[in-house]
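Suppose a colleague, Dr. K., hands you the sequence of a protein chain of 179 amino acids and asks what its three-dimensional shape might be. Before reaching for any lab equipment, you can write down a predicted structure in C-alpha cell form. Begin with the sequence itself:
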Amino acid sequence: MVVGDALSELTHVDERIGQYDKYIAQAAAEDQQSRQLMQLSGIGPTTASAIVATVGKGHDFSCGRQFCAWLGLVPGQYSSGGNQRLGRITNAGDGYLRTLLVLGAKAMLATAKNKTDPVSRWAISVQERRGYWKAVVAIAAKNARMCWAMLQRGEAVQDARVSRRRHQSIQKLVDVTVG
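The predicted structure, expressed as C-alpha cells, is then:
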C-alpha cells in the first residue's frame, strides 16, 4: 500500500517535471538570447534560459574568464615568488549554472567521438592528454566563455567550430559564385 502510493506520487512528479521542461523549452525558444546560446553544442534550453535569467547580457563581467571564475570553472592560483601553481577548480559562484554547464559538457564529450569538427577534435585531444574530468571542465569553461561573448555582443559568435581557413574558403566560394 505504501509502496503503491509512493510510486503513484513519483509518477505524478515525473509528469509535472515533464510539463515544466516543456515550459522552459517554449520560453527559451521565444527568447532571442536563449536561441543564440542554444546554437552552441552542450547548451540546451534549460542551460540557456538559466544563463540569460542569471546574468542577462553579461555586463557585470569584463571578460569571459571573469565569468568563468564567477561560475567556479577556473583553477585556484597559489602563486609566490614568480612560481605559479594552479590548484583545483574553485567551486565558487553559482553551483546550478556550473552543474548545467558541466552536464552539457559531458554530453558534448560523449558525442564528440563521432564528429570531426574542430571543437570535437579539441575536446577529444584534451581528454587524451588530461583525462575525462579535466576535459569536461575545460569544455564547460569554453562554453561559458562563448556564452558570455554571445551575450555581450548580442549576436552569434564565430567560434572554433568554423576554422578561419574554412571560413575563408567559404567566403572565396561565395565571392566566385556572386562575382
